[in-house]
């Protein structure tokens, strides 16, 4: 089996791979982690094509976007390769999907920020959102959920800015938001959240509520130091292990019916 995630650097994907490798060892199968170095559609398509050319029987994929990779996945399926989604699906039917209910988790993130703002006596103001891009399904759903928590609440949610999941780019975006006087910043993934926390830290300003997504050492450090309120921690190891299990069942001839399973989320605070 091949495991193709959006990149090979974020701790989220490293942990997902660890979960997959552990399950693969238990089931006596082999998983190759063959992800691009950076979030790039062309590189991800190349990984899919390489897996097909290399004779892999199943591909677990976290799609960078819902459409760009679709034709490559359809070609893989026509070659008899089984497709299972982990974290983020594309617009192609697959055996199964294991991901966070991102819209619900995004709403939870919004509710946590709202509670903190209200507890501080802040009932209005602008809020910045840093997302990866406008295409990645998981992150788009998180933003939708987050925005829904603020409907009718008296806050202004600014136009989303995109940092491509890069912590340095995201920090620059957050710094720009801070100069606009925002009361809160939401990061939609690991790099976005790290950038937001670093910008709040660098600003030296109190009272900006930072909320984000994913769990990394950098993010946990920013929460401990008080620069981020909380993060929505997914369970990428569960996505990886369940993905391998589903691939094995599909290869053994079981019909999984395209089932979508929520792998859960936890709110991590100081």
UniProtKB/TrEMBL annotation:
SUPFAM superfamilies: Periplasmic binding protein-like I. Residues 6-254 form the Periplasmic binding protein domain. InterPro entries: Peripla_BP_I, SBP_2_dom. Its main location: other. The keyword Cell wall biogenesis/degradation does not apply. It is found in: Cell envelope. Keywords: Signal. Belongs to the bacterial solute-binding protein 2 family. PANTHER family: D-ALLOSE-BINDING PERIPLASMIC PROTEIN-RELATED (PTHR46847:SF1). This is Substrate-binding domain-containing protein. The lineage of its organism: Bacteria, Bacillati, Bacillota, Clostridia, Lachnospirales.
């Amino acid at each position: 089996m091949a495991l193709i995630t959006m990149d090979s650097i974020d701790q989220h994907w490293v942990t997902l791979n660890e979960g997959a490798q552990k399950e693969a060892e238990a089931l006596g199968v082999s998983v190759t982690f063959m992800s691009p170095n950076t979030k790039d559609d062309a590189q991800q398509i190349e990984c899919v094509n390489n897996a097909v050319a290399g004779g892999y029987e199943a591909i677990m994929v976290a799609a960078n976007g819902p459409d760009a990779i679709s034709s490559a996945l359809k070609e893989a399926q026509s070659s008899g390769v089984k497709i299972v989604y982990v974290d983020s699906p594309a617009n192609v039917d697959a055996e199964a999907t294991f991901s966070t209910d991102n819209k619900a988790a995004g709403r939870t993130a919004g509710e946590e920020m709202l509670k903190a703002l209200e507890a501080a006596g802040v009932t209005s103001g602008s809020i910045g959102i840093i997302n990866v891009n406008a295409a990645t399904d998981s992150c788009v759903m998180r933003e939708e959920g987050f925005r829904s928590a603020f409907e009718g609440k008296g806050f202004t949610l600014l136009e989303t800015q995109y940092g491509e999941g890069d912590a340095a780019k995201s920090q620059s975006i957050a710094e720009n938001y801070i100069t606009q006087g925002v009361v809160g910043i939401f990061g939609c993934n690991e790099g976005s959240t790290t950038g937001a926390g670093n910008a709040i830290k660098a600003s030296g300003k109190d009272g900006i509520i930072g909320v984000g997504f994913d769990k990394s050492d950098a993010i946990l450090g920013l929460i401990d130091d008080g620069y981020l309120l909380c993060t929505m921690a997914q369970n990428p190891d569960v996505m990886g292990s369940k993905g391998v299990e589903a691939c094995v069942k599909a290869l053994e001839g079981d019909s999984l019916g395209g089932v979508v399973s929520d792998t859960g989320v936890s709110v991590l605070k100081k």
